[in-house]
Amino acid sequence: MQLFLIRHPRPLLDAGICYGQLDVEAEDPQPLAERLRPLLPAETPLIASPLRRARGLADALQRPPLLDSRLMEINFGQWEGQRWEQIDRRLLDAWAADVLHFVPPDGESVAALQARVVDCLASLRGERVALVTHAGVIRCALGHWLQLPLAEWSRLTLDFGSLTLLEIARAGNQQAATDAPIPAAILHYHNR
């Protein structure tokens, strides 16, 4: 299955604000939609995070997109809407010490985010689908299917409005000539 992973436009927030699932407006999605539309094969189903910054781009690409809350960004709980430098330094240090499992107050861990992303993507059917979502979601998908170490996938650069193409191999496929397993996924391009 081909997954066209699209990051939403730049949010209309000051730099340095923790926003996660904070539902904020974003820059005009029309220029991005015009650039991305020719890169998506015709009749590609589109699923989006219900947060406005993703939904707006999805609406500009195709009406009406399907919405799936499993594609929402990580929930930073009480941190959302705060400047990063105003968040308790001890909590940020605890998060840095255990990026995968630390849970911000009233939020969720990166492991919980990845579990819901994997659940969502595993439920998809068809030959291809486009997802309009968030950097954390895309990183989790790439990390899981490309079997990357956390230190690598958690730091992947994903530009606003970028397109990443990931092809997930179907379970049980084998290479006929060598009988070796096909990799879990192939990254065709990143940040296009």
Largest sheet: 6 strands, mixed
Q: Which oligomerization state do the chains in this entry correspond to?
A: single chain
Which CATH-level-2 architecture?
A: 3-Layer(aba) Sandwich
Q: Give the radius of gyration.
A: 17 Å
Helix content class: 25-40%
How many beta-strand elements?
A: 6
The strand line-up of the biggest sheet is 3-2-4-1-5-6
Structural class: alpha/beta
Order of helices and strands: EHEHEHHEHHEE
| Number of domain modules | 1
Question: Mean pLDDT, as a whole number?
Answer: 92
Task: Please write out the topology.
Blueprint: E1 2-7, H1 30-36, E2 46-48, H2 52-61, E3 66-67, H3 89-97, H4 110-122, E4 128-133, H5 135-145, H6 150-153, E5 163-168, E6 185-189
Parallel strand pairs: 1-4, 2-3, 2-4
Antiparallel strand pairs: 1-5, 5-6
Question: Can you characterise this structure?
Answer:
The chain has 192 residues and is of the alpha/beta class. The protein has one domain (2-7, 19-125, 137-163): Phosphoglycerate mutase-like (Rossmann fold), CATH 3.40.50. Helix content is 28%, strand content 15%. It is built from 6 helices and 6 strands, in the order βαβαβααβααββ. The chain has helices at 30-36, 52-61, 89-97, 110-122, 135-145, 150-153, and strands spanning 2-7, 46-48, 66-67, 128-133, 163-168, 185-189. Strands 3-2-4-1-5-6 form a 6-stranded mixed beta sheet. β2, α2 (52-61) and β3 (66-67) form a beta-alpha-beta unit. α1 crosses α2 (52-61) and α4 crosses α5 (135-145). The longest helix is centred in the middle third of the chain and has 13 residues, at 110-122. It is globular, with a radius of gyration of 17 Å. Residues 172-178 have low confidence and may be disordered.
